[in-house]
Give the backbone structure.
Amino acid sequence: MRLPADICEALVEVGQQPDDEVDLAETALILSTVDRPAVHLDSYRRHLNTLCDDVAAYVSGLRQPLDLAICHEALVQVLFRRYGYLGDDDAFDDPDSANLTYVIDRRAGLPVLLGVLYIHVAQHQGWGAVGLNFPGRFLLRLEVGSERMILDPFGGGVAVDPRNLRDILKALSGTHAELRPDDYKAVSSRDVLLRIQNNIHNRLLRSGRMDEAIAVIEVMLLFAPSATHLWRDCGLLHARMDNVEKAIKALETYLQNDRSSDSRYNASRLLQELRQRLN
């Protein structure tokens, strides 16, 4: 895949930004143009602004400071009830559900894409909103003042308590699964973007479309060049496709930048084998 220069440059610029300066929704829109290069993003940006304005209007005139319940209500009333954003089980089998422009068009998509909308709108109001490291289902934490709440964007923004979280986890991972402290850990906007692209990447791997899977990793490396595991994965896939020189380059970059991973030994052995093949 050869990206248009403007998309490539925009993603490289994101890759150079600190995590806390990455614009989650804007970068997700840019990534959506990888599969839809002819789409114009202005109308989608206007829609995001409309969502923000409508939530601001919903809480305008209310006594300040706003409490968590009112902020949550505003998000649900606008995103779910007014605009109809809701999870759809068919999204997990639809590759377009990982594309933010399609999600906006259809008002449905993967949990992580719906989460991008909630996070963007909440942060625009000055409320704290971050994605969580919850396995299997993307959840987010809304924070207003000293109050916190975990929301499920796939379920229309419904609040979930520890019992709900446990039920969700067991439904996704099996009855043996139990909640861990890491499941509540906040993730950066860059991590959320990687989660979006991982959905695309894993779907391509399952269908055996290796060249396209490699292309997705290479896109990910543009906006997350410090994610060393991506260099390893890129090298392994290139090796499977017998792209020896590209595999060597990716594995060398991985080994140069990852000093602690348990995967270093296997990567080093593979790199030696590839160098021997090249010679």
About this structure: Residues 42-59 form the longest helix (18 residues). The domain at 189-278 is CATH 1.25.40.10 (Serine Threonine Protein Phosphatase 5, Tetratricopeptide repeat). The chain has a mean pLDDT of 94. The longest strand covers residues 147-152.
